[in-house]
Amino acid sequence: MTPALEANADGLIGPTHSYAGLSPGNLASSLNKGEASNPRAAVLQGLDKMKTLADLGLPQYVLPPHERPDIPFLRTLGFTGSDAAVLERAWKEAPGFAAAACSASPMWAANAATVTPSADAADGRVHFTPANLHTNLHRSLEHQQTKRALDALFPDPTRFAVHDALPAVAHLADEGAANHVRLCAEHGAPGVNLLVWGREAFEPWADAFPARQTHEASQAIARRHQAGRPVFPRQSRAAIAGGTFHNDVVCVGALDTLFFHELAFEDTTGTRAAIRAAADGLFEPQFVEVSLADLPLADAISSYLFNSMLVQIPGEDRLTLICPTETRDNPRSHAVAQSLAASNGPIGAVRYVDVRQSMRNGGGPACLRLRVVLTGAEQAATNPAMRLTDALHARLSTWANRWYRESLRPADLADPQLLAESRGALDELCTILDLGTGFYPFQRG
Q: For the segment 25-43, what is each residue's pLDDT rounded down to a tens digit?
């Protein structure tokens, strides 16, 4: 076994962070639709959360925001003229498409890709498949730029394989790592990959909220990544109906421990058995299940207890759960969290981080990060300019304070000055993160 650590690559929240309510099934997104957001506070909260992880000794990387508004997308719809004219006309004639083109949703890097570490891949490389995010228009615009970001962070093809997204069709709808959990004895040892799905490709679906991941998409990624020991649990239909649009709203895992809500899986007994069978000879899984009686689904969703980060801090024997402050503020979820820390189980501590701006759009600490298990040699092969240090944190904080607005309402997304501000911010960011020339479409003329 080659020693490895679990790194986090967080999405840097973009200048157009707003509450436009674009995501059906995401209750927080719908609840806060139309309210004023604070992009500056949002990006600084995200940066501070990254620094918390880096200060704990975990490798932490930064993924850049996408170009928003997405003028090239609007041009494919027939809008012409200057970029400002395209934006103005799109908001007048096709406001739904204009809103999608302005979304800062790439901040939620848990949806950026599915990752298979080298210990699980037959060719010994780390594999990435950007999610096509086919279910929602605003998110379906992301995967090509996500691939460019992953190529920039993981540039060595002898160690990393960054694939294209799966075909963008409903039958292969893929939501990335938000529906993926890896269990193992040690990060550098072979593990078991849970690839959770909500519906079959050809299954009729008439429920109010969409099932965003298909079984066939999960299977295709496992084949593409040559991933050993995959398990394919079905997401609970009751959980989807209740507003758990991704499995990471009701489930998180790390090392040999799976922490989940009673309603996480359609067949909990079968899921446990399948994990045990896949882990046979590698490790003995530990299951920490929270009952519906202890935490009603509505409280699980509003508190985002399970959308916390379950991490192994170097030098500590037990896992740490890094929760949003909303978990602490909800009496039921707080009681569950405190009972975990007081127990003799695998989760020994709970910490809280403030990501309220993201939470108001339905994204907790786990939504903001893509987990990537890396050996020392693989860490050395990443782009060093994208790894968070104290100096980079300070530089990005200064950058954000210079470029980001304090307040933004959805109507402000039509402001051509915001387009200019966003592009100015991204231009400077390319220098800070050593992304090269032409990283964004607007830089290519």
A: 555 455 657 788 999 999 9
DSSP state of 111: G
How many residues can be counted in the chain?
A: 445
pLDDT of residue 22: 61
Q: Report the alpha-carbon distance of residue 312 to residue 56 in Å, rounded.
A: 10
Compute the C-alpha angle 131/382/59, nearest 5°: 85
- Dihedral of alpha carbons 89, 91, 96, 100, sign: positive
By C-alpha distance, which of 217, 280, 207 is closest to 244?
207
340 Cβ partners below 8 Å, 6+ apart?
288, 321, 347, 350
CB–CB of 275/284 below 8 Å? no
With a cut of 60, say whether residue 301 has pLDDT above it: yes
Kindly report the CA angle at 367 between 366 and 370, in degrees rounded to 5?
75
Q: Which residues are catalytic?
A: 175, 246, 367
Q: Which single residue is written with the structure tokens 């003995």?
A: 284
Domains present along the chain, CATH in parentheses: 12-68+103-437 (3.75.10.20)
The three-class DSSP label of residue 254 is strand
Separation between Cα atoms, residue 370 and residue 115, nearest integer Å = 8
Tokens describing residue 437: 């020339």
Angle between helices 416-432 and 83-93 (to 10 degrees): 130
Tell me: the pLDDT tens digits for 164-222?
A: 999 999 999 999 999 999 999 999 999 999 999 999 999 999 888 999 999 999 999 99
Residue 415, amino acid: D
DSSP assignment of 225-253, as one string? Answer: TTBSSEE-PBBPHHHHHHT--SGGGTEEE
426 within 8 A of 402, measured Cβ to Cβ? no
Residues 6+ apart with CB under 8 A from 230: 192, 193, 194, 195, 218, 219, 222, 278
Pairing of strands 126-130, 160-162: parallel
